[in-house]
Write a structure and sequence with these properties.
Elements (H helix, E strand, L loop, with lengths): L4 H27 L6 H27 L6 H19 L4 H26 L9 H36 L1
């Protein structure tokens, strides 16, 4: 049976909720280990607050559809995030691996929100547009910040390693 635009929209909302659950878990684990990088730690903490707001917005969108998030997807993504954070924490260059992974993840989130926004009209869910647009803009700002700071974080890591030698 073919899915309707509304069905695809609801699945997309559930996927985005699971995605943001994963992002929250990643940032919570990362922030515990960023004391040597106070600017990155502050930005991660601020984006964590935005992520919690994004989760609430997605729940509002799902509620407007008469639907709820997927506990299975949320749990699976949470476990995946913790496993990824654990793997990166064992690496000496954890800050670099996290920076690269965060850059990729932000762009994944941006694409997910753009897809949901494209579906709003066809799904009859224009009421969700402003909520999804707000989340997209937050993700775009975070992606831009990461992109702008890759070189700086890399050189801070080099300096930390030099001082440790």
């Amino acid at each position: 049976m073919a899915q309707t635009a509304r069905d695809i929209f609801v699945v997309g909302l559930r996927n985005a909720h699971a995605m943001e659950t994963q992002a929250r878990e990643l940032m919570e684990r990362q922030s515990e280990r960023l004391d040597d990088y106070p600017e990155v730690k502050a930005k991660v903490a601020a984006h964590l607050e935005e992520t919690n707001a994004q989760l609430r917005r997605l729940e509002q969108c799902l509620d407007a559809c008469g639907e709820s998030s997927s506990a299975l997807k949320d749990t699976t993504q949470s476990i995946a995030a913790n496993a990824m954070a654990m793997a990166h924490s064992m690496a000496g260059d954890e800050i670099l691996k996290n920076t690269f992974a965060n850059n990729a993840f932000e762009h994944f989130e941006i694409a997910a929100y753009k897809s949901l926004l494209a579906l709003c009209s066809a799904a009859g869910m224009e009421s969700s547009r402003a909520l999804l647009k707000a989340s997209l803009e937050e993700e775009e700002r975070m992606a831009a910040w990461i992109d702008t700071n890759v070189e700086k974080v890399t050189m801070e890591y080099v300096e930390h390693e030099r001082q440790a030698a």
